[in-house]
From TrEMBL:
Localization per Swiss-Prot or TrEMBL: Membrane
Domain of life from the UniProt record: Eukaryota
Organism of this sequence: Tuber borchii (White truffle)
A GO MF term: acyltransferase activity
Gene Ontology annotations of biological process type: phosphatidylcholine biosynthetic process
Pfam families, sorted: DUF2838
Keyword annotations from UniProtKB, A to Z: Acyltransferase, Lipid biosynthesis, Lipid metabolism, Membrane, Phospholipid biosynthesis, Phospholipid metabolism, Transferase, Transmembrane, Transmembrane helix
Name of the protein described by the UniProt record: Glycerophosphocholine acyltransferase 1
Family per record: Belongs to the GPC1 family.
Transmembrane segments: 12-35, 118-139, 180-201, 207-226
Bilayer topology: Multi-pass membrane protein
Region spans: Disordered: 273-304
């Protein structure tokens, strides 16, 4: 997280650090270390972690790309709160939960929360975050945002401009686009909270959901590797084709081909002369052998 803070400030992405996912991580830290007895804080954190944070992995295409610290950090910010809460609620020893996190024991045992209560109590910290974001980022930093500093709203408006919901928002007056975006964002948050009672009271449902989210991030990472490295390899091949075509059409290569064309008959003539000379030498050797053989034969005949 500290590395993310400095790198995003350096790249001009500091307004992304005020997004809801960072606020949920802060709520989780408060719930674990400062307010472990607060049932309402615990249930609010749980709904926001399993709701907006977990589903944002699909919406923001968080990817498990091992060589990218930025992508791994983004995935960690979104997936770790629900994973930690799954361990606290379903995997931790009950005696330890009773002594260290009594709010979880009370909500699971005596004071059970229904869907409506979960949504209501999760809306309270969500509303605090949304109003603070609008006041300190959208209003007070309006000039810098207009100058090009990206925010979640500007990113979503650009990314979803061709979808039906993006077109619907962009048709509104400019002053009404941001309130419409906040309303859509809250509706999305409530929609993702609907299955939270199943995640909280049923260990198997929670495990299946987190497994699906993790597999989705792996799929995004695999797609990233195929798209990025495949595209890079394709660009290298295209560049290689251009270099080969440029080399083949270069004047020096044409001159070299012309010289080779004129030298081929000369090489052929030289080869023919060499072969003829070698043949003549062989014939001379053969004639000399015949002479010696005839001389020896004549000598033997005379002696006889």
């Amino acid at each position: 997280m500290p590395i993310r803070y400095f790198t995003y400030h350096k790249r001009g992405y500091q307004y992304f650090l005020a997004d809801l996912c960072y606020f949920v991580n802060l709520l989780l830290l408060l719930n674990i270390w400062i307010f472990p007895n607060s049932r309402r804080l615990m249930i609010s954190t749980y709904c926001l972690a399993y709701g907006n944070n977990a589903w944002a992995i699909a919406m923001w295409r968080n990817s498990l790309v091992f060589h990218s610290l930025d992508k791994v950090t983004s995935l960690f910010i979104h997936i770790m709160p629900p994973v930690v809460l799954h361990c606290l609620v379903h995997l931790l020893d009950q005696d330890l939960v009773d002594s260290r996190f009594p709010s979880i024991s009370r909500v699971k045992g005596v004071e059970k929360y229904g869907l409506i209560e979960m949504v209501i109590w999760a809306t309270v910290p969500y509303g605090i975050w949304q109003l603070s974001y609008h006041l300190f980022i959208t209003v007070r930093r309006r000039e810098k945002i207009a100058a090009g500093r990206p925010t979640s709203f500007t990113w979503l408006r650009k990314s979803y401009s061709k979808t039906w919901i993006g077109k619907l928002v962009l048709r509104l007056p400019e002053t009404a686009q941001e309130p419409a975006f906040m309303l859509i964002q809250y509706s999305y948050a409530v929609l993702t909270m609907l299955p939270c009672p199943f995640w909280f009271y049923h260990r198997s449902f929670s495990a299946l959901f987190l497994t699906a989210v993790g597999l989705w991030s792996i799929y995004n990472g695999a797609t990233y590797y195929i798209d990025v490295f495949g595209k890079r390899f394709q660009n290298e091949l295209e560049q290689l084709k251009k270099d080969v075509a440029k080399w083949q059409s270069s004047p020096r290569l044409n001159e070299s081909n012309e010289d080779t064309k004129y030298l081929e008959p000369l090489n052929l003539t030289t080869k023919t002369i060499t072969e003829t000379t070698a043949t003549d030498r062989g014939e001379k050797k053969l004639d000399g052998s015949e002479v010696r053989e005839r001389t020896i034969t004549s000598s033997v005949t005379t002696e006889t």
